[in-house]
Amino acid sequence: MFYSSLSGMGLASTKAQNALDVDEARATAEETKSEADVLKHDVDRLMMITEALWAFLKKEHGYSDDDLAKAIGAIDLRHSGADKDAQEKCPNCGRLISAHRHLCLYCGHPVPQSLFEP
User: What does the pLDDT look like over 89-102, one tens digit per residue?
Assistant: First the structure.
């Protein structure tokens, strides 16, 4: 009888700990959602600013979308440390991107990775 009462107390403390863990997980999830909402807002704002700047450059200086795509490709290669041979075509939009990318910079489509490369 003594042992059964101890095991019941252990069960109660386990339930209490589980309830605390659930509450902590909920709080963490809510904080993470709030942080994600702030990041989404920042990305949306930066996208609008970038679009406005690009419209200005096209109008005032005559740049084309191809000029922008080439500049993005050059920056992508420079930042990835890859050479021109380390490019591949996006399977969705066909634009050249660094072979080290997991998502296309232009359309966001997943780029298949080799099973033998990190």
Answer: 888 998 888 877 88
Tokens of 86: 């380390």
Digit-coded pLDDT (tens) for 45-77: 999 999 999 999 999 999 999 999 888 888 887
The pTM of the whole model exceeds 0.85: no
Are 44 and 100 contained in the same domain? no
Task: List the structure tokens of 99.
Answer: 């072979």
Q: Which domain holds residue 33?
A: 1-62
User: Three-state DSSP class for 96?
Assistant: strand
Q: Is residue 25 domain-shared with residue 80, that is, in the same domain?
A: no
State the chain's maximal CA–CA distance in angstroms. Answer: 88
